[in-house]
Amino acid sequence: MTIHTPVQHRSKLPDVGTTIFTVIGQLSAQHNAINLSQGAPNFSPDPKLIAGVTKAMLDNHNQYAAMTGLVSLKTLIAEKVETLYGARYDVNDEVLIAASASEGLYSAISGLVHPGDEVIYFEPSFDSYAPIVRLQGARPVALKLALPDFTVDWEEVRAAITPRTRMIIINTPHNPSGQIFSAHDLEMLTALTRNTDIVILSDEVYEHIVFDGQRHHGMATHPQLAERSVIVSSFGKTFHVTGWRVGYCLAPAALMDEICKVHQFLMFSADTPMQYAFADYMTDPQTYLSLAAFYQRKRDLMQSLLADSPFKLLPSAGSFFLLASYGHFSDEPDSEMVKRLITEQGVATIPLSAFYTDGTDNKIIRLSFAKDEATLRAGARALCQLKPR
User: Fold this and answer.
1) Do 98 and 200 sit in the same domain of this protein?
2) Helix, strand, or coil here: 244?
3) Residue 389 pLDDT > 80, yes or no?
């Protein structure tokens, strides 16, 4: 039964409706399809981590944590970042435990972006950036990454910067392309933002998932960028617990102060038992340092399994995503291709057009290899059996 309201209202996001992610999810469930679409693992986390949460609950750590987070956890994060990237963040004023990376992104944009501001970001992109910007009364400015390598055209960025530009959103390793920023990208970003009041919001939730011995070139690796950046990362992506919804932010104290003003009224604090569990778990650096090799094995397996498929695989340098092109054998829209893969092959993927606000269709689909081996083998087998039209 539907409750009908007499209230007349005006939507703040009139262009946002049912997303392709919902459509694919529903269709996938109807056909019991193998799930290579969702960016979340289908395997269990380390039992030690679950035991840590249980222990925290039994030890009565069940009430609100401090607004900015558990000091012991923030200390471990600051130490990790200094060891890996060289930047030193003050535990009291420059580290925030957020109720998910998404909450961190929202609090950062809401706290630092004002009505009339412009925010540059790059497409294809994680789908929450533009709506959050619009909710602040600001204007999202989408620039397209250059194919086939999904690289930033820095001259295009230079041309897009105006006196109203308040923020540039970076995502490395990149969802959905799996590409990573280079040292050259950092130098170009530094040059373009020098002597401006532009804030860099750097979504680095896949920071520990970088392949082939390459380095994660995050904002904390570059002092001039660190001093104007808000870095957002995720415990869920790192430790295979995306449903626990805990992340963190790093930022200079003056920027963090504005972020915390939003955070305290939006969430006040992140989940307390989870924070205690992460603080205990992260005392062993191998819990995150081993992640790149763990996912590289899955990437390599997926690439090997799909070698005889009709798809052309694009390189994946990081994250747990792999792009597959099909334009050489079909001209059907990618949204129709993924539906056909579900109904005919029993495997769910995501169309790359879903990551563009204008629906750009490059005849590419996204696969997630954050799955157990049986799922990867079954999904790859189904994709290999697709008959080109």
Assistant:
1) yes
2) helix
3) no
